[in-house]
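Deliverable D4.2, example record:
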Amino acid sequence: RRVHGGFGKIRLMSSSGRSAVTVVFGGGGFVGSLVCKRAVAQGLKVKSVTRSGMPQHLSSSSWAQQVEWVKANALDPKTYQDALRGADSVVISLGYPPIPFSDVATQVRANGEIPATIIQAAKQAAVPNVVLVSASMPRFATIGYQQGKKLAESAALEFAGSGGSATILRPAAISGTRTVQSFNVPIWMLLKPLSILFKLVQTPVGLLERMFPVLSNIFDPPVDVEQVAERAVRAIVSPPARGECKVVLNSELIKLKPN
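Output generated by the structure prediction step:
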């Protein structure tokens, strides 16, 4: 198994000549919905696995009408095994935020056990490529969050070690407009100034992080949701070689210029 920085060939068509199929878990969410939108724009066939099908706030979006919405329980592969059959890529963009004092078991399950279950199901279905939206984690992040993310990344690495292609994205805080129960929450208004500030102090902060490892990732600049979604789609159409895993750090994500 190798972790590398290269890419394979661009793949908009499967080996059988049909449009490549991507299955997105969490496609109704903040990052996942934008991954679906961009994948549709690339001409990919997109399926989104969610607990309740198409979210109400996306029902008027033309791109969402082109997505096949699958109701399923992410912890029960039998409920989505049909969606995985013949798929070329799986994108996992779901989890639970690192809220202090949250139940450890809940965070491990949402951030680790569920993604690991999906990755194992993808392996069983012979899906060749997996993209995992993970996170850049300060050392003070909640224990359950850290354990869960590490469990999910280990599953992605094992997937690559078994002959698949894997990409792990590690964004810091993700900026943009999040929809919560049909209400748009402009979290970018808070995170955009922080992003500008953190980018300005990257050099002295880098020195501090090398001197005091406990500070690692605390001052990672927030990344725009468009950048995360764009990089996920690039990992779909241009995956690493089989047997390899590409880890994309926040420092690379913030430099990305979405198409």
